[in-house]
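The aim of this short unit is practical: by the end, you should be able to scan a pair of folded records and say something sensible about each. We start with the first protein, listed as its amino acid sequence and then its structure tokens.
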Amino acid sequence: MPDHRTGLSVLHPATLLSTWFGAGLLPKMPGTWGSAAALPFAWGLTMAGGPTLLAAATLVCFGVGWWASSVYVRRTGTEDPGEVVIDEVAGQWLVLLAAPLDPLFYLAGFALFRIFDIWKPWPVGWADRRIGGGLGIMLDDILAGSYGLGLLILFNHLRS
């Protein structure tokens, strides 16, 4: 059955992917839900193929997210719908490239990404305001993830 706002079924690939299989449709804090939903996938990808597989999956997620969120925003007529959370998945995975398979590091990576995604230091906020469509949705979270990645690399370096 199509959603009355978008005309897209919840089973349409653009809806499934952009909402990260419905995580973005959960009530309140969709970005946090999307980031949390990214964690077990990152863990599984890292277990299966290490950071190389996670990096490749992050690139694929970025490309697929660009497409899916572009379709979704065209259908809704909105700039950055809250339920679109595939951008959080890609940004979260980027941060976790520096995380060993350790729940505390995953928690730190989750917190770092959410802080930079919400705070939006330059150029994150600039990208969020200036670049529209699917690319803009994806890019600001990749930039936020870059900040988190840098800090997690630093933490790793300082602990060794």
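Turning to the second protein, read its sequence before its tokens, just as you did above.
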Amino acid sequence: MKILITGGAGFIGSALVRYILSETQHSVINVDKLTYAGNLNSIPDALQSKDRYRFEQLDICDSTAIRKVLQETQPTVIMHLAAESHVDRSIDGPGDFMQTNIMGTFVLLEEARQYWSTLEGAAKADFRFHHISTDEVYGDLPHPDDVQGELPLFTESTSYAPSSPYSASKASSDHLVRAWQRTYGLPTIITNCSNNYGPYHFPEKLVPHIILNALAGKPLPVYGNGSQIRDWLYVEDHARALFTVVTQGKIGETYNIGGHNEKRNIEVVRTICALLEDMVPTKPAGVDHYQDLITFVQDRPGHDARYAIDASKMSAELDWAPQETFESGIKKTVQWYLDNATWWQQVLNGEYQLDRLGKE
């Protein structure tokens, strides 16, 4: 099977590429524009050198380039992960999110539809367009500080109520995918995931940002009072789930993928600090305890109170469950950043593409 992955140099995309190339015999066509968060160094050289791997640097908004790569590679399935994904960036500059997440998905759907229409027999029957989305499209849920009793979870039938430009753009792309399935019969599947964390995560996101700031003795910024709750999913568990869905999921279905790990943001930060106390007892100058670096900052506009995924459909229908608890996954993540300083130092310095692309 040939799997075309958009955004395969990003955080989740590269985890998916690594999983397919190391755990299966399928081929990967990695399509990525290589914007600031795209990093080919997130895929080890040993995997990139495989005959089953091909990289194409292009913009998913470029219909001509997409059409060309589809015709040349003839993929069995498309797994669409390419997206602008940082909420703060979407608040500061929403235009790129509208262009990539909405128009990029539109272009990809149209080119996939044209390509699919040319297929025959088993190739046409086997084709899938798997759209990877987020739980943020659902808005937020009641917070345990505000209500009593059993708390609800996001299910596949939860109504959409996005709060940020980012989540609104992803909700729009989800609607497009469903419309192309309903109107044109394009064989699509959608997954919505909770907060990912793990190796190769771009340092602007919470977990790596806290790890690297703590190691540098810098403030550990926490929005508001840190009470916001997220469901945390180890990225390698997510990659395994995505492959399960694209190979076993039903056309037209949506699957929620979560880690069963609801944690307040302040809990996540304190857990990282506690791990670093044991793993890196020699601290930066002037730091007695890593937790002393925690700094509460003004909350972001429209900050959702709680996300929590009901992944029972994944478990019941596709026999998937996360292998990592938050405790095991976050320890692995901290250790990875300690062991891979070269990777994140190149990212922080903006040098991570130089050896790959020879760009200035």
